[in-house]
Amino acid sequence: MIAAERRAAILDLIRSNGVVSLRDLAAAVQTSEVTVRRDLRLLEDDGLIDRRHGGAVLPGGLSHEQSYRQKSRVAAAEKAAIAEVAVGLLREGDAIAIGAGSTTHEFARRLNRFAELTVVTTSLLAAQELASTRAEVVVTGGSLRGSTYALVGGAAEQALASLRLQKAVLSGNGLTPERGLSTPNMLSAGVDKAMVAAADEVIVLADHTKLGTDTMWQTIPIEQVTHLVTDWQAQPEQVEAFRAAGVDVHVAPRPGG
């Protein structure tokens, strides 16, 4: 296992369990505690975990939100594969909303294949990607959250309230069959709720590190999620739990696999 794969595996274990001992991490990735301690130091420098005596925990608990830079480093290959599958759920002529996030950014990068598409977005990064496509692009107003390049607040919600769209494409920070989609930030939750209210279908893009994770503010209950697109590393029992909740689950395959 190369260093990058080992650190990704360590991060997945911490995300899944909340807190993991140094000894358990070393056993799980089959390396020494000295090596794991060095990996934890690098992950902490990137803001992805907090080190504790004898182990590591997720930073900040329910209210912590990573910056876009931090998010983009996690499960990058999986997010790209998810975006590729999700594009297949669109049709020419659709009017869609795209929320902010690293996975929705990957999704926006692939929309240049459509000849006719209307996109409403709160993501400055998605809008930038769409500027060179044939899509008609509408960017909501609102206050800028610099850490996530997202427009939030009352102006953004009001702009969305007057719309009717076929699909809303969201990511979020956590997704569970019991509580649905959630985010650590109240303003982000408000904007995502407004997107969902305007759309006939909701497509959630969530890599395996987000499944089973719950954060502070509920975006939408699971009953409002039409499609979930996740990746090949999602646990089969998690996939089945979402299907049992009535969600149409699409599992992106490993590239080249």
Overall description:
This protein is of the alpha/beta class and 257 residues long. It has 2 domains: 3-59, Arc Repressor Mutant, subunit A; 70-252, Rossmann fold. It has helices at residues 3-17, 22-29, 33-45, 68-72, 76-87, 102-109, 124-130, 154-161, 186-198, 236-244, and strands at residues 19-21, 50-52, 55-57, 95-98, 118-121, 136-139, 143-145, 150-152, 165-170, 174-176, 180-183, 199-205, 217-220, 227-231, 248-252. The strands form 4 sheets. It has a 7-stranded parallel sheet with strand order 6-5-4-9-12-14-15, sandwiched between helices. Strands 1-3-2 form a 3-stranded antiparallel sheet. Strands 10-11-13 form a 3-stranded antiparallel sheet. Strand 2 (50-52) and strand 3 form a beta hairpin. Helix 1 crosses helix 3, helix 2 packs across helix 3 and helix 5 packs across helix 6. The longest helix is centred in the first third of the chain and has 15 residues, at 3-17. The protein is globular, with a radius of gyration of 18 Å. The two termini are 18 Å apart. The mean pLDDT is 89.
Name the features.
257 residues; Arc Repressor Mutant, subunit A; Rossmann fold; 7-stranded parallel beta sheet; 10 helices; 38% helix
